[in-house]
Design brief:
Strand order of the largest sheet: 5-4-1-6-12-8-13
CATH superfamily: Spore Coat Polysaccharide Biosynthesis Protein SpsA, Chain A
Helix content: 10-25%
CATH class: Alpha Beta
Structural class: alpha/beta
Low-confidence stretches: none
Pfam families: NTP_transferase
Largest sheet: 7 strands, mixed
Strand content: 25-35%
CATH architecture: Alpha-Beta Complex
CATH topology: Spore Coat Polysaccharide Biosynthesis Protein SpsA, Chain A
Radius of gyration: 17 Å
Distance between the termini: 23 Å
Keywords: Nucleotidyltransferase, Transferase
Number of domains: 1
Shape: globular
Mean pLDDT: 94
Number of strands: 14
GO molecular function: nucleotidyltransferase activity
InterPro entries: GlmU-like, NTP_transferase_dom, Nucleotide-diphossugar_trans
Oligomer: single chain
Protein name: Mannose-1-phosphate guanylyltransferase
Number of helices: 6
């Protein structure tokens, strides 16, 4: 199989959330610093970026930002980290992208700081880069089919057509794919964005209407680590990697 260079050397790591579902563990620490298998969640994400060859990471911060910044400053390995500061106002996922955009190339990788996954035959950033088409896409989402989404108990998020175009789950129905929290984003997706806090879903809806939101299926395993009870089952899998 032919290889393709990564489409970007930079990733936005979303780490500003309040982590309410992880209480009481997040009462005194931000969710990205919760340890799973002996490693902070954000270190799992940054180490994956490092292994894939992504050289730079922009991390947005809000809740207990000083603790998170202090942790990032003492990391010895991995991508060079810069901060997108949301201390004054939590901007949600879409607003966080807009705030960080001046620090981000076009396109850029974007991932949640609490993601834990096992790669398939290729790392996910190589898989996304291989599928990326800047002429056709505003964003390319990494999707997880239900059998590969461990600890997940929801109804799914999206459908993919044969060309990889994304459509949403209908209310009351089940969709075959869950959004992994990992994507490639073009600055075109962010155009004419509203000011202040808003969800990326607003931008995705427009991209779906324009036929410019695409996805690919993850070939490895993905773990939802949204609640304290998900930590131990996830740790049981990780030594098998």
């Amino acid at each position: 199989m032919s290889t393709k260079p990564l489409v970007s050397d930079t990733a936005l790591v979303l780490a500003a959330g309040l982590g309410k579902r992880m209480r009481p563990l997040t009462a005194s620490q931000p969710k990205p610093l919760i340890r799973v298998a002996g490693k902070a969640l954000i270190d799992h994400a940054l180490d994956k970026l490092d292994n894939a060859g992504v050289a730079k990471a922009v991390v947005n911060v809000h809740y207990l930002a000083d603790a998170l910044e202090g942790h990032l400053k003492v990391r010895r390995n991995g991508p060079t980290v810069s901060i997108s500061d949301e201390r004054e106002l939590l901007l949600e996922t879409g607003g966080g992208m807009v705030r960080a955009a001046p620090q981000l190339p076009d396109p850029f990788f974007c991932l949640n700081s609490d993601n834990i996954w096992l790669d398939g035959p290729n790392d996910v950033f190589a898989e996304l880069s291989r599928a990326w088409d800047a002429q056709a896409m505003d964003a390319l989402l990494l999707m997880v089919p239900h059998p590969r989404a461990l600890n997940y108990r929801g109804d799914g998020d999206f459908h993919l057509d044969p060309l990889g175009k994304v459509s949403r789950r209908q209310p009351g129905r089940v969709a075959p794919f869950i959004f992994s929290g990992i994507q490639i984003v073009s600055h075109r997706l962010l155009r004419d964005a509203p000011e202040g806090p808003f969800s990326t879903n607003l931008l995705w809806t427009r991209a779906i209407e324009e036929g410019r939101l695409y996805g690919i299926s993850h070939t490895g395993l993905w773990f939802e680590v949204g609640e304290p009870g998900a930590i131990r089952p996830t740790e049981a899998w990780l030594p098998r990697a």
